[in-house]
Amino acid sequence: MNKVWEWFITKAYAAGETAKDFNAWGNSTNKGPLGSGSFVDTLDSVIVHIAEFAGGLAFLALIVGAWQYLLAGGDETRAEAGKKTITWAIIGIVLVLVFYLIIQAVALGIFQKIPVNS
Questions:
Q1: Among 20, 61, 43, which Cα is nearest to 104's?
Q2: Beta bridge pairs of residue 32
Q3: What is the pTM of this model?
Q4: Which of 46, 63, 80, 82 is 20 to 30 Å from the Cα of 25, by its Cα?
Q5: Digit-coded pLDDT (tens) for 44-54
């Protein structure tokens, strides 16, 4: 299994590094799971993880709403509850995307002006 993992890592990350230079997350060993160690990289990584989690929850809500709607069986109140869940899930997905893009744009604008490691 270890040989398979090393082969996969070397093929997936063919950037001149060897498989032993990567940890269990697939990141380079000079980085942690939150980025390269600088404040900007860590903050960016945390924001990405939060957006992924929130987007996953919104997608799960979309699946639950679709399930509610499909299993309504002609019951108008259950079908309406499923429709509302689907609507709010789509709104949630859109909000997660919009907030992520706004945060990334603001962070890019702020942190590009600050000299890092100068």
A1: 43
A2: 35
A3: 0.59
A4: 63
A5: 778 888 989 99
Q: Which amino acid is at 41?
A: D
Measuring CA to CA, which residue among 44, 61, 52, 46 is closest to residue 97?
A: 52
| Burial (0-12, 13-18, 19+ Cβ within 10 Å), 1 | exposed
Q: Write the pLDDT tens digit of every residue in 43-90.
A: 777 888 898 999 999 999 999 999 999 999 889 999 999 999 999 999
- Sequential DSSP letters for 12-61: HTTTT--GGGB-TTSSBTTSBTTBSSSHHHHHHHHHHHHHHHHHHHHHHH
